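Researcher: Please generate the 3D structure of the following complex. Treat every line as part of one assembly.
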Amino acid sequence: MTLWSGIEQFLEQRRKQGLQRRRRIVDSPQAPEMLVDGERLLSFCSNDYLGLAADSRLAEAATAAIGRYGFGAGASHLVTGHMTPHHQLEQALAEFTGSEATLLFSTGYMANQAVITSLLGRHDLFVEDKLNHASLIDAARLSGARVQRFAHGDMVRMRQLLAADGSNQQSLDSPGRTSMLATDGVFSMDGDLAQLDQLVPTCRQAKSWLLVDEAHAFGVIGDGGRGSFEALGLNARDPGIIRVGTLGKAFGSFGAFVAGSRELIELLIQTARTYIYTTALPPAVAAASLAALVIIRDEPERRRHLRERVDQFRQGAESLGLNLMPSTTPIQPILIGDADNAVSASEQLRRQGIWVTAIRPPTVPQGTARLRVTLSAGHSREHVDCLLDALATLNLPKGNRP
Ligand SMILES: *Cc1c(COP(=O)(O)O)cnc(C)c1O
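Model: Done. Output below.
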């Protein structure tokens, strides 16, 4: 028994179960047509929803900032690392999201951790949807709060857990006890929207924080790209509502931010360990994000084009008899069921030059392995036709065909 034998066994088991994850090397910009391990593939799996990752305006903004500020930020925000591009981006994001203030983080993972661990401790309650992103789940664990999860979209159970029905009202009102409900705004593996029309009033009544992770929503949904609240015609300007956005998806850049009340942002600056004990983003990255924000605000035609591609895909896939999920967003999973069949379907597509990832347990529940198709404003009508043609030739097991 060596130090390594346990690891070898673990890896071998993963390989045997067909669950080994591997990385593919991309040697071209993030765009629908990519060079992957020397092969040309048409990609339907990036999070670059608006086609901004390789937009020259982001590269130009970054280059100009490098010319002025150099590359590294040199220190954390509270030491010497807080620079003009960071500050300008925070102000522009506050205006865009309609919140009092925002605070930049290096990643969405860290932003979620900051909010949850700064507001909750071990006497508090954290309630969440079971399909929430891993960063919310991990942060809750780290906070030490009592975690209660409800089945995806189960609003009855959600209300019970928050005790808005009155059964547990007393303990929630007891001094010093805090509760928070957290949800993805757009669920990353299913593509559906959180039922904010029910979550908002329930949280208000229960005097609970509501944390909405808008990683797949900001820039993408709502006519102005202002996310789930805009898409559902709801107001996010309530001091109990906190939103987290990421800059690595629709923004085509890197980083994340928290949007909320001035007091909340001040609290995070004072207490959030993932803010205080880490180097600030390179200023050029903030400058690129600001350039992306201007495009998101000024080019709504990108969202219209994306919407058309989503409709085109759904109509085509439905007429092929594929099992779609009730999603109106660019995340359009095709349910396959069995993990091996999902991998086989992904392989069959790749042989035809199409890149769509198979998502398997434990990322999604047992028996719900799927092809996760994501669409982008960078896709043309012809690109989506190519995907549909390839899907039509798939040899899928029964249940995925009428
Ligand atoms: C991607 C993602 C994150 C993490 O954001 P990063 O900036 O990539 O760390 C958080 N929440 C959700 C829902 C995400 O999809």
